[in-house]
Predict the structure.
Amino acid sequence: MKRLACVVTLLASVQLAAGQEESSSNQITSAFSPVTWERLLNAADEPHNWLMYSGTFDSQRYSRLDQIHNRNVDGLTLKWAYQIPEIDRAETVPLVVDGVMFVTEAPSNVVALDAATGRQYWRYEHELPDDLRICCGRNNRGVAILDEMLYMSTLDAHLVAIDARSGNLVWNREVADHRAGYSKTAAPLVVKDQVVTGIAGGEFGIRGFLDSYNAVTGEQEWRAWTIPGPDHPDNESWAGDSWRTGGSPTWITGSYDPDLNLVYWGTGNPGPDWNGDVRMGDNLYADSALALNADTGEMEWYFQFTPHDVHDWDAIQVPILADIEYDGETRKVMMWANRNAFYYTLDRETGEFLVGKPFAKQTWAEGLDENGRPIRIPNTFPTPEGVVVSPPIGGGTNWWSPSYSPRTGLFYVNAFDGEQEYFIRDEEYTEGEQYTGGGGNQVLPMDNYQSYIRAIDPATGDRRWEFPIAPRSTTGLLTTAGDLLFGGTVDGYFFAIDAVSGQELWHMAVGARVHSAPLTYAVDGQQYVTIAAGNVVFTFGLGD
Amino acid sequence: MRTSLLLGLTKTVLIAALIVTGGTDAPVAQETENPFVTSVDVRMGLRLFRQQCGRCHGRDATGNDETGAPDLTTGTYQNASSDAGLFKVIREGIDNTAMIGINPNASDQTVWQIVAYLDSLNVDPGDVDLPGTPATGQQVFNGKGNCSSCHMVNGEGGRLGPDLSRIGERRDPDELKTDLIDPNDEVNPRWWQMKVTRQDGSVVEGSRMNEDTFTLRIMDDDENLWSFDKNRVRSSERIETSTMPSTEGTMTASEVDDLVAYLFSLRKEN
């Protein structure tokens, strides 16, 4: 029966992907079937599902569904809403598997819903200690799935495995000691029979790493430190013992190239965030893109975007992978719009720097040299009196997922033209205490600034168009085969614009900040678009 | 030109994101009054605040649009009405919100010093020696200054400028004086003016009550409310200066001092 459900839904997806009309039929089979490794590898071929945080291993956040397109999107209506009982700011990207949606909630809970109605199957509530060390809210951004098991990060720095049919806890692994400032908020990434998962805590003087765990047993397979130890020559990029407390967390989900067998993951700020005097040097591999062998965790290459960062410009953005025409040949590239306000195209086989241009307002670098290293402008480091620099601490962009549409060949990013007054201060490290060495003041009320969705040609870094948002957006993006781009705003809009032209097509007031990323899926022939806003998960579709 | 005062007030009182979820009448500390209130404690509290709290609430405690953490400089807190209540919030956090308690290893003294710092941000008007007289300032406000034509105080007055009923909690005397003399020094985006030209060429102007990517709401000079879809108007233009006239040339220095004294006295009525 389970196998039949899978076949029925797959057929529906093929028809949807082909743009054929699909008559709605009652689902007479059971929902959900195991998500094998082969299904994950070919996730793009079943666009009725959303099988991992960024949709597919290349993290393009592009769906082949086209029932909703740029000529009928103004007919979207609300299909259902799910109220998250815990009050916080939802950052979840749900997964959808054969009619079942898995939604994570603050602080570290997950609920399984009927994806067509929003009604609950089961709910898992993770018990947390009362002495958490978290910098930036009680967030959780999603789960990963393999076969019949869900994997979730928790705020107390554990990785848990949950039975996808029942919500029962299967195993619970401590990844790091939360009392030392470690926490976990990001969706893991399943690679083969492993669960690859990052760590947060860059404001607490942690030493960052990326881990892999056996998906069945929960045993650790490998750990890749994001700050090399003293037995490695790159350790010399940290003054003295500063590497021990140098941060470089891995708090957003990475990507995977099955042909190269490389896991790509971004690293966060060096610590303390704003006082670089105590950690002189480039501070490798903070603020970097890492390419790791998926079987061993060994580093194939790295690219550091912001050497010796003193502005908290984490490089934890989701790497988007695609093969594009560059300089007359097809190249396997990685696209990356960084928090430091520069857009980069890298060769993902070698890490070679290909393209680099600002995509948002920046006042800290004259540009990038031939290797992609920034040429700093003097007097832009934080001072005791304060210095105003663009981008702000929140960055030219941040952790909000970008998108790439193979139909348009454009990379889409949520950009912010802002600024910040940066300060430095002396600070001693104490385990479990915040260790930031400074901070920032907002210079003007937010309405003085502007966000944009910017469409970038990855072969040149040039902007094709921009869509202004007044004043702010902090959402991820989604593109579809219907030539749509979905996003949201901090003042509570969910919208669709034309992915080709950037023209507005549809918007809906959802009443609270959109601080997550949209996804699309289909059940029983009906395409849906889902977004979390405030503490509510909204799902839209075309009217009957 | 309308005659009004303080249309240029700009201290951004950030929308509080934390939700009231429980009482604060059961302090953890045995003391109900802060035993650590010396200037050294305030300085220590400042340092600790920046380290422990500044990332969300801002280095200067004025809140943060990015994190949604509220402004703590207004003297009014959503979840505490006393020093003991503040202590409890800092120590335990607020359930079901992003506000978590301080590191459990922090001493009571540490928490009280942060309370002392937050208290230091709110000046008791009785402790401030000002050259003006509040009662005289009130007469100027309602008389010669004609301030009440635009500003409401305790339910009486106009709607074309900010409600000033509790302005003394948000602005210190120097800031108030600047607001009066140079209203364009900083203009809160709420009080920018908008000029909207409709498709038929007619124009509606008014103060910017709320604007977003797609829509706009304003109040015109006759206090009418308007809402526009930006796709259905020819243009909408921001005018980022204040409509409030400066007191320079129309008021004496002592009248300005009196106005400042009056405005600084406007606080929550106990």
Summary: Confidence is low (pLDDT under 50) at residues 1-25 of chain A. Chain A touches chain B at residues 86-89, 130-138, 203, 393-394, 423, 425, 427, 432-434, 436, 439-442, 445-448, 468-470, 472, 474, 489-491, 493, 495, 504, 507, 513 (CB under 8 Å). The first helix of chain A runs from residue 2 to 17. The domain at 2-542 of chain A is CATH 2.140.10.10 (Methanol Dehydrogenase; Chain A).
